[in-house]
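Suppose you are handed a protein chain with no further information: no name, no annotation, nothing but its sequence. What can you learn? This example shows the usual starting point.
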Amino acid sequence: MIGLIKEYRLGFLLYAMVFIGGLTMVIAIPKPELHLLMNSSHTPFQDAFFKAITWLGDGWFAVIFSLIFLLVRFRYFFMLILSFSLSGLLTQFLKRVVFPGALRPAAWLEQMPGIETVPGVGLYQTLSFPSGHTTSAFAVLLLAGFILKSRSAVFLGMALAWCVAFSRVYLSQHFLVDVLSGSLPGTISALFFYWYFQRLKPEWLDRSILKILPVRKK
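A reasonable first move is to predict its three-dimensional structure. Written in structure tokens, the prediction is:
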């Protein structure tokens, strides 16, 4: 896995810069003040953009995206679905068992006067830490970059995943600390499952579902 990080070091440099910068702000600025700071520049374009891109972290997107890769190789499908599923289970365990009392921004409204919200986005109050959408985005989008075996694709996957993470803050669904924490299991999962499945040699893993479907004779 270290080899993957070295090969795609530009994408991981982006990850490190955003994570360290975000963590520095989390440590230095109280949670309500930091959220107001990050939530104070809404525009109609940004409202529409972040409402749309946040769906790249939705579970249904991850499942459908993974299923598409059945048309390419079983190996890629299993990489994606397992990366999404297992990282998601870990995040849900942390969210519901370890940190069930973590409150979302909507529960802090009295302490954050002037917070901006986006029309049409329902706000939740509990199960804030860590962010499940962020975990899913990194688990799937980063892994897709590995599958494409392109430095540009890995960088783009990383950038899109961070956009999804920021969308959760912009939409006041999570605090910054929630999305930073959510990025970790998704990134580790993408690295692990790509590395693991690249080591497996069975031929059937490199077939697509199209190869096993019965062909109708004319």
